[in-house]
Amino acid sequence: MIIKLHLLNLEHIKRKKYKTFEEKKKIIFCLKKNQNQNKKKKSYLWAKKMEKNTRLKQARQNNRCCLTGRTKFFLKQFSFSRHVVNLHAFEGLLQNVKTKSW
Hints:
The protein is built from three helices and two strands; from the N terminus they run ααββα. By secondary structure, the chain is mainly alpha-helical.
């Protein structure tokens, strides 16, 4: 199994961007809901902030397998893809997991 390091690094960068985006979004909504500011000032601030944030688009988050870097069929319990879970379960490396064979 080959670890796709470049994909994992890209995912790490995306998660950082997502975190900063969420922080900015919270600040903007607090500015919008602030009752002490008059309406013109509030709408101006809101328009400016949203203008800047349209450039920072929300990064989509994908869960990736720790060993293979696969995104499809990711199991959150183990943080592995189904292929790796199947292999580990068959070898008996996962606790409380039984394999069925007929």
